[in-house]
Amino acid sequence: MSRSQTPSDAAPKSCRQCSEDLPEAMTRRGLCYECTRVQDFRRPIENHHPFGRYNGAVEAITVEIPGNWHRVLNARANERPPILKRPGDNPLHQIASAVAALGEAVATFADFARRQQWPEWAAKLADRFAAAADSASTWLLVLAGRLDDRLGPEWRRDLDLPLWEI
Ligand SMILES: [Zn+2]
Description:
Layout: H1 33-39, E1 45-48, H2 56-59, E2 63-66, H3 67-78, H4 82-85, H5 91-115, H6 120-151, H7 155-158
Antiparallel strand pairs: 1-2
Helix pairs in contact: 3-5, 5-6
The protein binds zinc ion.
C-alpha cells in the first residue's frame, strides 16, 4: 500500500463535528455538508426543488430540507435519465418526472426512517411506494412514445386534454 492510500488519508466516513455518516453528506473537510455550511456562517437548511427547475412553474416550488438530506435527494435525482431531469413540454414526460421525484422522496423517507430507527413497517411501506413509482414512471415514458408513434406528435392537442399542473 502506497503512502497515499493509507487509511489515515482516506476520506473520513463520519463528521468530526456531529458524527453524521450519510455517505452523500460527507465532504473532504472531514465534516458533513451541514457542518461545513454552519462553519461558513450559512444555514444548514437549504431550499429543495422537489420537481426540479425545468420550467418557471416547477422552479417556484421549494421545500426547506436539511442540507445533508438535500444532498441525498439530489444524488438520487442525478441518477435519472435526461428525459426525467428535463421533461420539456410533453405532459406525460412531466408527470413521469414528478412520479420519479415522488419515488426518490419516499426512498429517502425509507432511509430516514431506518436511520431514525422508526418501526420497520414505515420503511418497508416507503420501499414499496418507491418501487411502484419507479415502475410507473418508466411505464409512462413508454406510453408517451407509443402515443407519439401511433397518433403523431399532435396527440396532446387532438385529444383536448386538460392542462396538467403540479
Ligand atoms: Zn456534521
